[in-house]
């Protein structure tokens, strides 16, 4: 049984969360260890069932990387010192180890995500007549996107591994929250008005979201 216990200063009660990486038990910062142990013991059957149900995510081969729904070759070259994407191929120095490659890969994805989201959001902003206060690219475990009450929209960098139409849906979803800060019928009607293939995108994320991993999982 493997559960990651995370203490939060503002959390008032203990709760389990299932993420692509496993199970987390998020607890108040001062909760006694004996109480934590009791919670884990009382829920051991539930935990084992959830762990068994988690889909297996195979580690990506060292010679390929994902980008916008495609498996892209990674070529190691001599006499270069940077990571780049050229002609549908990733390139990196032949001296780099896995840690260097993954760090550069994530930096590349973050830059591309911000560029893509910023450009795509212009269409939705013109249609809806609203504008985000700030666009942030994150690396969340359990959320694909979020919209704060102040108008800051966060998009998960891992979506750059998915087909672009899936990322388009998440962008539309979060921009619709600038009008409806809930998931009411009015909200979903607004999403459908700017992105008609909601069911296709959500089904894809449900079936394949766990495979969108920047770092190796085993």
TrEMBL record:
Residues 13-207 form the YgjP-like metallopeptidase domain. InterPro entries: UTP_pyrophosphatase-like (IPR053136), YgjP-like_metallopeptidase (IPR002725). It comes from the Bacteria. Coiled coil: none annotated. CDD domains: M48_yhfN_like. PANTHER family: UNCHARACTERIZED PROTEIN YGJP, UTP PYROPHOSPHATASE. This is M48 family metallopeptidase.
């Amino acid at each position: 049984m493997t559960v990651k216990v995370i203490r939060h200063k503002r959390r008032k009660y203990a709760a389990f969360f299932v993420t692509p990486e496993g199970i987390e038990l998020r607890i108040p910062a001062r909760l006694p260890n004996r109480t934590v142990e009791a919670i884990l013991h009382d829920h051991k059957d539930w935990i084992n069932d959830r762990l068994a149900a988690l889909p297996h995510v195979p580690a990506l081969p060292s010679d390929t990387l994902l980008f916008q729904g495609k498996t892209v070759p990674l070529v190691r070259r001599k006499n270069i010192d940077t990571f780049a994407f050229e002609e549908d191929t990733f390139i990196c120095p032949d001296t780099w180890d896995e840690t260097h490659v993954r760090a550069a890969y994530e930096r590349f994805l973050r830059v591309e995500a911000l560029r893509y989201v910023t450009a795509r959001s212009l269409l939705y902003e013109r249609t809806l007549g609203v504008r985000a206060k700030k666009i942030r690219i994150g690396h969340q475990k359990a959320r694909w996107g979020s919209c704060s009450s102040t108008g800051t929209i966060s998009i998960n960098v891992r979506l750059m591994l998915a087909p672009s139409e899936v990322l388009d849906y998440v962008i539309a979803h979060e921009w619709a929250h600038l009008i409806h800060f809930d998931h009411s019928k009015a909200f979903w009607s607004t999403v459908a008005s700017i992105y008609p293939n909601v069911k296709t995108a959500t089904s894809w994320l449900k079936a394949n979201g766990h495979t969108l991993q920047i770092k190796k999982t085993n």
